[in-house]
Amino acid sequence: MPEISVRKLTQTFGTTRVLDEVGFTVPDGAFVTLLGPSGCGKTTTLMSLAGFHTPDAGTIAHGDRCLFDAAARRNVPAEQRELGVVFQSYALWPHLSVAENVAFPLKVRRTDRAEVKRRVGEILDLVELGHRADAHPYELSGGQQQRVALARALAHGPSALLLDEPFSNLDAKLRERAREWLGDLQRDLGITTVFVTHDQTEALAMSDQILVMNHGRIVRAGTPEDVYRRPGSRFVAEFLGRCNFLTGKARSTGTGTWLLETPGLSGGIPFDSETQPGPGPVTVALRPEALAVTAPVTGAPAPGWPADVMYSTFLGDHYLHTLRIGPQTLTALTTHPLPTATVRVALAADAASLVTQDSAPHDSIQPAPVLHSV
């Protein structure tokens, strides 16, 4: 199964640049997620890959096959791209049975009748719906409809799978089970997959690589852990969950590391930075779970700073606390309630990372990230 290569995809609707020279490579067998808010360009990118949308400029290749080249006026029709697509609405034929829906792409390709029957049975067993072959979509649950849509996408043996927010119509519990099931299936099949979502939990749980999009550009690319722990910009940090931001002056320790000097946090905050911080104010990001919160021990020296607990919120498997350290207000997570109103706060190793303020839309061209298999 060849890799997917996208280069400088550009699309403008009126005065709005929906895609701004988007470029990336999806390795063979990888699960790559396009993550971002509504209107960021992720679905337009996916539909361009599928052949249902024609960009103004750029190229799309699948292995040694050129699927789209605006300059050369080449645009392979969607039905000839041999890609499996699952739409957000599933797009099942209501008057056809489950088996007939799955068989549809095979019949379009004039597959032999016996082979259609064999392949449909095989795929329905794969998605655990062999017993519902004669049912119609309206007789199925949302999760079952989602699996029928996936079975139909896999029926003709595609070389890659494209998924456009397939879990958005499911409730929270069913969504969790569906993403675990799909992740297992994708790994078993080893099929190259491009997944679109605005849900950061889905992206973090399922992906080999994440491409974060905003204003038609890829603003961050990397593994889930790398993108979460080192977001690079304030937008990415905020989009991927709760985050504390502290601003101050960067000071070199002389050993290749940096400290953020900011009011109320004596001794400074060590932070990561691949480049030398500027001379002006800088901002670092701190995830709430990176704050180690403990009850103070009288007379015992302890790292960190004293903090007042402003209020706490019980969220089932953890507590979210709002803490005041001098002039600073921070949020922290613990698995247990805090025993006192005054606590001690310390930082886990490598807790802070430098973030930049987000630039205005389209004032620069982002590099085309090349993703590597993990």
Structure description:
The chain is α+β, with helices and mostly antiparallel strands. The protein folds into 2 domains: 4-234, Rossmann fold, CATH 3.40.50.300; 242-355, Beta Barrel (OB fold (Dihydrolipoamide Acetyltransferase, E2P)). Helix content is 22%, strand content 34%. It is built from 8 helices and 21 strands. The strands form 4 sheets. The protein has a 6-stranded mixed sheet, sandwiched between helices. Strands 2-1-4-5-6 form a 5-stranded antiparallel sheet, covered by helices on one side. Strand 13 and strand 14 (269-272) form a beta hairpin. The relative contact order is 0.14.
Structural class: alpha+beta
Assembly level? single chain
Q: Could you give a short account of the major beta sheet?
A: 6 strands, mixed
Rg computed from alpha carbons, rounded to a whole number of angstroms: 24 Å
Going by CATH, what is the homologous superfamily of the largest domain? P-loop containing nucleotide triphosphate hydrolases
Number of helices: 8
Q: Percentage of helical residues?
A: 10-25%
Any idea what the CATH architecture of the largest domain is?
3-Layer(aba) Sandwich
Molecular shape: globular
- Beginning-to-end CA distance, first to last residue: 16 Å
Low-confidence residue ranges:
359-374
* H and E order: EEEHEEEEHHHEHEHEEHHEEEEEEEEEE
- CATH topology type of the largest domain: Rossmann fold
